[in-house]
Design a protein that fits this description.
- The complex is a heterodimer of chains A (448) and B (117).
- By secondary structure, chain A is α/β, with parallel strands linked by helices.
- Chain A contains 20 helices and 16 strands.
- Chain A has a 5-stranded parallel sheet with strand order 2-1-3-4-5, sandwiched between helices. A 5-stranded parallel sheet of chain A has the order 7-10-13-6-14. A two-stranded antiparallel sheet of chain A has the order 8-9.
- In chain A, strand 3, helix 3 and strand 4 form a beta-alpha-beta unit.
- Chain B has 117 residues and is mainly α.
- In chain B, 79% of the residues lie in helices and 0% in strands.
- Chain B has 6 helices and no strands.
- Chain B starts with 9 loop residues before the first helix and ends with a helix.
- Classes of the chains: A alpha/beta (448), B mainly alpha (117).
C-alpha cells in the first residue's frame, strides 16, 4: 500500500492550503482539498482513506457531513478539525463516529500528522486481515473442503450453494466425523458474511450453567465473579455467522431462551437491561435426529421448526462409494507432504480393504487409518497388511459381521455388555432392561 | 518592511518548514481570499445577520491566528459565536467590525508590500 488518499475539507482557503501542504510532505499521501460539504460528499466515490473535516462549513455542518459520510461508508475515518473549543460539540461528534476532534491551534498540524500515521497503520492492518480472510475463503471453496465425486456429495454442494446465496438458517445433520463443522465454515466463508466473524459454539462442550453467559454475555456484577462486562458469542458474531454445534445436547431451559432470542432477533445480557440486536446468521449441527428428539420430549418442537431452515444431511462415509479412495489419496498425499515423505499409492488389496470397512468414525476415522497406514508401510506402495482399523467396534458392527438367529444375537448383545461393564451382571441387566436371572442362567449354561 | 508590523510569520514559517516559496504562495492565498470573507462578514453586519457575521469571523479565525495578528486575537474570538454577537451590543459590534476591516486591510497592504505579492 503506497498511496494514501486524504480529503481535506476546509472552507478557509488559507488554512486548507496550509494543511494540504503540510500533509503532502509525506510523498505517500495524496491530498484533495474541498471547500464545501457537498463537494466532499460528491467525491466520496474516490474512496478516500481518511477525511480531515472542518466543523464549520458554509453549506453543511461538520456533523451533517460526518453523518452522511458514515451512512455511505462507515469505515472511512473522519478527523474533525474545528475552531470550536466546545466540549459538548466534540463529544457529540465522537459519538457519531468521528475518529478524533482537534481544535485549530499551533499543535493541530502535528496532531493531524500523528492521527494520519496511526490511521494508516490501522488501514494496513485491516488490509492484512482482509487478505487473510480472503485466503481463508479460498481454503473453504467447496471442492477444497469436502473431497468427493459421489452423487451424494454433489447433491450436498448444490444445497450448500443455496445456503450461501441466502440468509436462511441452516441445520446440518450427520454422524460424527462427517464434517458438519467444515460445511458450516464453507457456507460462511463463501457467503456475503465472510468479512464478518464466524463464531462456533460447541453446545456439548460447555457446562449447561455457563452456556447462557457464553452465548448472550453478562453485565458487570450480574453474578459473583462477573467483574467486568462480557460480550456474548451472539454479539461477537455481529453480522457474521454463529455456529451452534451439537445443538441436540442443549438443555431444555436454554432451548426456551434461545428460541426467544431467535424469535425477537434481540437479546439482553445477563444482569442487563440494554437490548442488543441479533444480526448474525445461524447455522446449527447435530449428530442426533432432532425430529426423534422432539418426539421423545428432549427437544422443543417450536425451536426445532425455528432451526430447521435449510436442512443438510451429510451421508456417512460408507454410503459414499469410491469417495473413500479419493479421500484416502487426499489424506495420504497431505500426510506425506507434511512429513516430507515420498508420496505413496494403495495396491488393489489395500483399496478393497478400505472399501469394505464400515467407518463408524466416518472421514475422521479414515484420516487416522490412512495416516497410520502411511507410517506402517515400507516403500511407496501401501498394501492391505499396512491398514488396520480401530478396535472400537460399535454394536451394529459386531451384530452384522455374520448372520445369526435372534437367540444368537441376544447372547452376543449380552456378552458385549458384560464385557463392557466388567461382568457386572446387575448393571448389564438394568442397562438391557432384562432380568438378572436371565444373565445368570446363560452364564451358568455357558451360553455366553 | 513596515515598522508597525501587525503580523508575525514565525508560526507560518515553522508550519511550512521554512519553505519561502510555499510561505509566499500561502500569503497570496490569504490576500486574495480574506477580503472575500471580510466582505461577506460586512454584508452580515449591514443586514443585522448575527449568524452570518459569526460564520465569516469563524472562517477567518484560524488564518488570522497563524499570521499571529495580535490586535485581532480577542475580538475574533468574541464574535465567532452567534450567541456572543447578540450579547455584544450594537456599539461594541460597530467598533469590532471597523477594527477588523481596518486591521485586515492594513495587514494585506503590509504583506503585499513586504512580499511583493
Amino acid at each position: 500500500m503506497n498511496n494514501f488518499k486524504i480529503f481535506v475539507v476546509e472552507d478557509d482557503p488559507f488554512y486548507g492550503e496550509m494543511l494540504k501542504y503540510h500533509i503532502s510532505l509525506n510523498p505517500d499521501y495524496i491530498v484533495e482539498k474541498f471547500e464545501t460539504g457537498h463537494e466532499c460528499l460528491n467525491n466520496l466515490y474516490k474512496n478516500p482513506d481518511v477525511i480531515s473535516l472542518d466543523y464549520s462549513l458554509p453549506d453543511l455542518s461538520g456533523l451533517e457531513v460526518l453523518k452522511r459520510v458514515k451512512d455511505l461508508n462507515s469505515e472511512i475515518p473522519v478527523i474533525i478539525v474545528s475552531g470550536q473549543e466546545d466540549v459538548s460539540t466534540a463529544v457529540k461528534l465522537l459519538k457519531e463516529g468521528a475518529y478524533d476532534y482537534f481544535v485549530k491551534d499551533d499543535e493541530t498540524k502535528d496532531r493531524i500528522w500523528n492521527a494520519l500515521k496511526n490511521i494508516r497503520e490501522q488501514v494496513k492492518l485491516k488490509q492484512q486481515i482482509d487478505d487473510l480472510k480472503e485466503e481463508i475463503g479460498k481454503k473453504y471453496v467447496f471442492n477444497n473442503i469436502i473431497k468427493g465425486n459421489s452423487k451424494e456429495i454433489k447433491a450436498i454442494f448444490n444445497i450448500m450453494q443455496k445456503a450461501v446465496d441466502t440468509n436462511i438458517t441452516v441445520s446440518i445433520y450427520g454422524e460424527t466425523g462427517t464434517g458438519k463443522d467444515l460445511v458450516a465454515k464453507a457456507i460462511h466463508y463463501n457467503s456475503l458474511r465472510s468479512k464478518f466473524p464466524f463464531i462456533p459454539i460447541n453446545v456439548a462442550a460447555i457446562p449447561k450453567d455457563l452456556i447462557e453467559s457464553e452465548m448472550f454475555g453478562y453485565e458487570k456484577g450480574a453474578f459473583t465473579g462477573a467483574n467486568t462486562r462480557k460480550i456474548g458469542k451472539f454479539e461477537e458474531a455481529g453480522k457474521g455467522t454463529i455456529f451452534l454445534d451439537e445443538i441436540g445436547e442443549m438443555d431444555v431451559n436454554m432451548q426456551a431462551k434461545l428460541l426467544r432470542v431467535l424469535q425477537e432477533r434481540e437479546l439482553t445480557r445477563i444482569g442487563g437491561h440494554a437490548v442488543v440486536k441479533v444480526t448474525a446468521r445461524l447455522i446449527v449441527a447435530t449428530h442426533r435426529d432432532l425430529a426423534e428428539e422432539v418426539k421423545a420430549g428432549n427437544f422443543r418442537q417450536d425451536l426445532y421448526y425455528r432451526l430447521l431452515g435449510l436442512p443438510i444431511t451429510l451421508p456417512p462415509l460408507n454410503e459414499r462409494g469410491n469417495d473413500i479412495l479419493l479421500l484416502a489419496k487426499y489424506f495420504m498425499d497431505a500426510f506425506c507432504d507434511e512429513n516430507n515423505l515420498a508420496r505413496k499409492t494403495l495396491n488393489p488389496l489395500a483399496q478393497d480393504k478400505l472399501l469394505s470397512y464400515s467407518y463408524p468414525g466416518n472421514v475422521r476415522e479414515l484420516k487416522a487409518v490412512i495416516e497410520l497406514a502411511v507410517v506402517m508401510s515400507n516403500g511407496e506402495v501401501i498394501d492391505d497388511t499396512d491398514i488396520s482399523f480401530s478396535n472400537i467396534k460399535n454394536v451394529s458392527d459386531f451384530l452384522l459381521d455374520e448372520e445369526d438367529t435372534l437367540t444368537g444375537y441376544t447372547r452376543k448383545i449380552i456378552a458385549h455388555y458384560l464385557d463392557k461393564y466388567d461382568d457386572n451382571i446387575l448393571k448389564v441387566a438394568k442397562k438391557l432392561d432384562i432380568g438378572k436371572s436371565t444373565i445368570y442362567r446363560l452364564k451358568k449354561n455357558n451360553e455366553i | 518592511m513596515p515598522d508597525n508590523k501587525l503580523y508575525d510569520l514565525k508560526k507560518l514559517y515553522e508550519m511550512l518548514g521554512d519553505d519561502d516559496e510555499e510561505v509566499k504562495n500561502l500569503l497570496n492565498v490569504f490576500v486574495t481570499t480574506t477580503p472575500v470573507s471580510l466582505q461577506s462578514m460586512n454584508e452580515g453586519y449591514e443586514e443585522d445577520d448575527a449568524k452570518k457575521i459569526a460564520t465569516y469571523a469563524h472562517k477567518m479565525k484560524a488564518s488570522l491566528a497563524i499570521l499571529d495578528i495580535d490586535s485581532l486575537h480577542d475580538i475574533v474570538r468574541k464574535i465567532d459565536k452567534q450567541e456572543k454577537v447578540e450579547d455584544i451590543g450594537q456599539e461594541e459590534l460597530d467598533q469590532i467590525i471597523a477594527t477588523m476591516n481596518q486591521v485586515i486591510n492594513d495587514v494585506i497592504d503590509q504583506l503585499t508590500d513586504e512580499y511583493h505579492l
